[in-house]
Every structure is written in C-alpha cells, then in structure tokens.
C-alpha cells in the first residue's frame, strides 16, 4: 500500500522561509504542500517553482492598491505538488477568489480528489470573511458531486471550544456552520492528531486545518502538527502533515538507465521494425478504449509501457557524455569532421609544408574555418548564459546560483568555505551559523571593568573639574568667555 502525504503551512513570507520550507519538503517527503501567506507580488510568483527541485506549483497573489509601494506583497496562496505524481493533475481555474487555489488529482483507486488551498481573511471584518467562505462553500458543493474534497490552509478561525477567548467568535461561528453543514472532520474533533493542540503559536489557537470528509478519514494513516523546534521555522504557525493511504503507488518509477534511446541514429529498417512491434499491442489497446468502463489513466499507462517496450527492442542506444561541450552544435561538428578529413588527406600526402601544396593549403583553410565557427558558437553560448544569469538574478535566485556554480571553472579562486575558530564551514547552514556567531560576539559589550580604564579615569577627572567650576560663584566653564569680536571668525570656521 502506498500513501499520499499532504502538508499545510502558513509561511508568513516565503522570502524569509525558503530554506525552512525546502528542508521541510525534503524531510517529510510530502507529495502536496499548501502554502498560505507567501507575500509575493504577481510578477514574482514563479519564484515558488524554484524553491525545491521536483515540485510544480499553482499559485495566486492578492491584488494590491495603487498606493501600495512595499517591496513585498500581501497574503497569497499556493499549492506545490511533486512532478513525479503519475496521476492526471489539473489546476482548477474557476475558484473566483484570490485567496483560494484548487487542484484535481485523478487516482485509480479513489477517483478524483479535489484539494483546495485557502487563506481566509485575517482582518476583523466578518463580511469579508463570510464572502470568501461562501465561495469556498460553493466550490465544495459543486466538486463534491464528482469526487472527494479536501480543504487545507490558514482559515483564520477556530472550530474548537478552547479557542473562543483568543479568536474572533463571529468568524469562528461561520466556520463551524460550514464544517457542520458538510460534516467535515478536523483535528481536535474526530481526527486525533500527534503534537500540540494549536497551530498559531502567538495565541496557542488552532486556525490551520486540513478538513476532510468521512470517506477520506477512513483512509487517513496519520495526522500530525509538527511541534516547535522539530523543524527550522521562521513562521509563527506550525506545519500540519497528513498521510492518506492509496492502493496504487502515486509516483512514477524513474528510469536510471545509463543507455538512452538514440533516435537520431535510427535507420529506415529499424523504424519499420518499430512499427511492427507497435501494431498488435496498439490494436488491443484501441479495443479497450471502445469499452464504456475504460479508465483513461490505465490506458495512458498501458500505452507508455507499449511504446517503451517497442523502443527498447528496436531503437539503438547511446550513453550520456557529461563532458560534451555545450556550445558544440551541429555546425561546429560538421566543420570539425571536415577539418579531420582534410588533415588525414594531408597526412597521406606525406605532410608537405607550404601553400603551394594543395593538401596542406586545404587542411589549413579548413582548420581556420573550424576555429572561427567554434569561436562564434562559444561566444553565442556565453552570451546566452550571461543573459540567463542576469534574468535569474532578478526573479529566480536558486537558478542564479545553479548557473553560477555550473560555469565556475575548476581553477576558480572562489572557495565555498570559511574558517572560524579553526573550524572549516563549507555548507550554507554552517556558514550562516559562523556569521551569526561572529556578529553575536561583535554585539556583546565587554564586561571587563578594567577595559580602557585610563580613558575612563581621565573623563571622570575632567567631569569633576567642570562640576567644581560650575559650583563656584562667578566662575565660567573651561575654555573661557568667547569675545564678541571672535564670533564672526568662529562662524566662518
């Protein structure tokens, strides 16, 4: 039996929680992650897709008023899901709200599973809250006719009796009505969870949920609220992790073959043989498609299997060469082969020297042409790389450092490590901790009473002199009286 892991977390600004979220995705190995309050503007939403490799993203940002000029946005909701999920996955576009995103996952065992990520209003306006909750109500009413529905995210209200004093009672009342209307289950109620009985740390209240119906609850393997300190976090909300049992493995089995199909080397005879291997299995598959109870996902998997089996038997293979120069285009390859051919002709001719020999003249000409074509291809590649780096520096910091690292030569003098107190720090975490320790020590005042004692004594002596001269009658402060004639000079100075 396999399972589908769901994670819900209010990150309170993704820019400050990127490393925390990346570590959390890796440590929990979650399949679908609902992120609320990412605080990104619309033009920066593609940053969410670069947080962790292997995840795709559907997301929305709150519209901002014209006078809003902060560098970050407000609110925001997103769903990250693994790209290895082999089920049919579709984004739900008709949510009619900037605070709700939807995802449809078609599973062979459970049918369609609709996951809605929501970040409901956090202000004190009950009308705004009721408006967004009514949209969520309409979505649940519609999509529950076609499959099971899960609602997850920061709902900014509590369903628990214990949170009445620390949460908006009117918003909580609206949320409780919604939950009871559709008999949704939540943690702290019928769902028994591990970890603390709250998700919002400041008020120790439960305002983040993964709501599900009884059908999903019967497949629920675990439900956990990750406690403070168990994960590195910059948010004042605790993450929620739920695991749902499935009958099928939700992930694609990624092939790690060292030999890959070389379609560019295939011949006409091999193409005909490839067609013969495909003919009979595809005819059987077409008959399955005509049946009324055919499942589209099963048919898709069968077709992929047939195509792979036919290719493995007929298509030639080649190994991946990691040392291939990226600028070695087809034009460079043709010029290089021409230069090698003419060099062989020159060698066979006895390696004569001088432009009056045709073999030597043609060889040198082809060699010069090859160098020019190679140099042009290299300059074009470098220009394209620099353009990609400049673009990534503005909108994708993870890709930016990936491109920088890829183009760093072996002889580079830039070493990704520092030495602190005879300890070598060569990971992002250890380097960050080294800088934290350095600035922490720099901030702490010296507690030694003898620190700069001579200067302190001199200051106290001068101070006592000033006090003594002020106590005396008709006495002036040190420095004497400034004469009227000296004022102009002092002002000019």
TrEMBL record:
Name the UniProt key words of this record, in alphabetical order: Hydrolase, Magnesium, Manganese, Metal-binding
Pfam families from the entry? Answer: Exo_endo_phos
Endonuclease/exonuclease/phosphatase domain residues:
8-237
Paste the cofactor note. Probably binds two magnesium or manganese ions per subunit.
Q: Which reaction does it catalyse?
A: Exonucleolytic cleavage in the 3'- to 5'-direction to yield nucleoside 5'-phosphates
Q: Which InterPro entries match?
A: AP_endonuc_1, Endo/exonu/phosph_ase_sf, Endo/exonuclease/phosphatase
Query: What terms describe the molecular function in GO for this protein?
Result: DNA-(apurinic or apyrimidinic site) endonuclease activity; double-stranded DNA 3'-5' DNA exonuclease activity; metal ion binding; phosphoric diester hydrolase activity
**Which residues make up the binding site for Mg(2+)?**
10, 37, 154, 156, 236-237
Which residues are marked as site: Transition state stabilizer?
156
Q: Which cofactor does it need?
A: Mg(2+); Mn(2+)
**Stretches that traverse the bilayer:** none
> According to the UniProt entry, where is the signal peptide?
none
- Annotated positions for site Interaction with DNA substrate: 237
Q: Where is this site: Important for catalytic activity?
A: 208
Does the record's keyword annotation contain Manganese?
Answer: yes
The EC number(s) this enzyme carries: 3.1.11.2
- A GO term from the CC aspect: nucleus
Q: What protein family does this chain belong to?
A: Belongs to the DNA repair enzymes AP/ExoA family.
- What is the name listed in the Swiss-Prot or TrEMBL entry for this protein? exodeoxyribonuclease III
What is the species listed in this Swiss-Prot or TrEMBL entry? Mytilus edulis (Blue mussel)
């Amino acid at each position: 039996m396999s399972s589908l892991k769901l994670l819900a977390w209010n990150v309170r600004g993704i820019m400050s929680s990127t490393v925390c979220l990346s570590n959390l995705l890796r440590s929990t190995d979650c399949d679908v992650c609902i992120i609320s309050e990412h605080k990104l503007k619309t033009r920066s939403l593609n940053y969410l897709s670069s947080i962790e490799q292997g995840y795709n993203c559907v997301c929305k940002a709150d519209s901002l008023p014209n006078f809003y000029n902060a560098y970050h946005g407000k609110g925001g909701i997103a769903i990250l899901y693994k790209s290895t999920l082999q089920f049919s996955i579709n984004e739900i576009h008709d949510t009619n709200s900037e605070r709700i995103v939807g995802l449809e996952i078609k599973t062979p065992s459970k049918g369609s599973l609709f996951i809605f990520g929501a970040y409901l209003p956090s202000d004190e306006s009950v009308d705004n809250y009721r408006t967004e909750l009514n949209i969520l109500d309409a979505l649940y009413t519609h999509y529950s006719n076609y499959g099971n529905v899960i609602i997850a995210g920061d709902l900014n209200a509590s369903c628990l009796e214990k949170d009445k004093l620390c949460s908006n009672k009117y918003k909580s009342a609206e949320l409780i009505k919604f939950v009871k209307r559709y008999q949704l289950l939540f943690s702290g109620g019928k769902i028994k969870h591990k970890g603390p009985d709250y998700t919002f740390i400041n008020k120790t209240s439960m305002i983040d949920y993964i709501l599900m119906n009884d059908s999903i609850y019967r497949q629920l393997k675990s439900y956990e609220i990750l406690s403070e300190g168990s994960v590195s976090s910059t948010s004042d909300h605790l993450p929620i992790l739920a695991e749902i049992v499935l009958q099928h493995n939700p992930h694609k089995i990624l092939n790690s073959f060292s030999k890959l199909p070389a379609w560019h080397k295939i011949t006409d005879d091999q193409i005909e043989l490839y067609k013969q291997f495909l003919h009979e299995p595809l005819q059987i598959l077409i008959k399955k498609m005509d049946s009324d109870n055919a499942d589209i996902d099963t048919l898709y998997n069968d077709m992929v299997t047939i195509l792979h089996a036919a290719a493995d038997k007929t298509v030639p293979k080649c190994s991946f060469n990691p040392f291939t120069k990226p600028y070695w285009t087809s034009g460079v390859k043709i010029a290089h082969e021409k230069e090698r051919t003419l060099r062989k002709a020159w060698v066979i001719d006895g390696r004569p020297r001088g432009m009056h020999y045709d073999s030597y003249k043609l060889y040198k000409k082809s060699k010069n042409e090859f160098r020019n074509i190679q140099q042009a291809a290299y300059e074009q590649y470098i220009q394209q790389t620099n353009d990609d780096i400049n673009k990534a520096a503005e909108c994708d910091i993870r890709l930016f450092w990936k491109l920088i690292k890829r183009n760093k030569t072996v002889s580079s003098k830039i070493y990704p490590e520092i030495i602190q107190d005879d300890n070598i720090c060569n990971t992002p975490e250890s380097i960050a901790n080294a800088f934290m320790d350095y600035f922490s020590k720099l901030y702490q005042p010296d507690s030694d009473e003898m620190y700069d004692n001579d200067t302190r004594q001199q200051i106290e002596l001068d101070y006592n002199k000033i006090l003594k001269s002020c106590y005396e009658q008709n006495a002036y402060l040190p420095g004497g009286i400034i004469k009227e004639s000296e004022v102009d000079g002092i002002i000019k100075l």
